[in-house]
Amino acid sequence: MRSAEQKDADDYYSQNYNPLDAEVARLTGSRLLFTREEVTAFFLSSVEEEERYLFLIFSPDGRIIGESVINEIDRKRRCANFRIGIFCAEERGKGIGTWVIEATRDFAFEELHLHRLELDVFSFNLRAEKAYQKAGFKREGVLRDAVMDGDGYADDILMAILEDEWRQIKS
Length: 171
Known about the structure:
This protein has 171 residues and is an alpha+beta fold. It has helices spanning 9-16, 22-28, 36-48, 96-110, 126-134, 163-170, and strands at 2-3, 53-58, 64-74, 79-86, 116-122, 138-149, 152-162.
């Protein structure tokens, strides 16, 4: 895992968004198809944005297989939002997500000196919720029937970890 760079834009699109994996689209509330221009413009603006950290996750052979993002940083309140996505189906279920969650969480508290790191996860993404809980995130609330899942609704679960909780995990 490393910080994204402008030179990664083409690989980011071609290796992950051509098209986006159907499960990733479902778990993130996204659509399947994006144009190269949409993805490249978003990627480049994300790399340049001062209040966003975009980390790319690589396979051993050098392919981009996912991302981890800290965004919506509020320096005064010392809080931020967090999200992760493993784009490649064959890379999910191997513990990569857990490792990335912990590494990004540690970066947020050690390097950014945050007090609070928060996220939301859809109720049908049980694997992600379990990984977040394992890393110390706690459920704080539920937005009932807040997202569409097929022909029905699902909940949006709000989770966070506080600085003191992180320190306790690390000690």
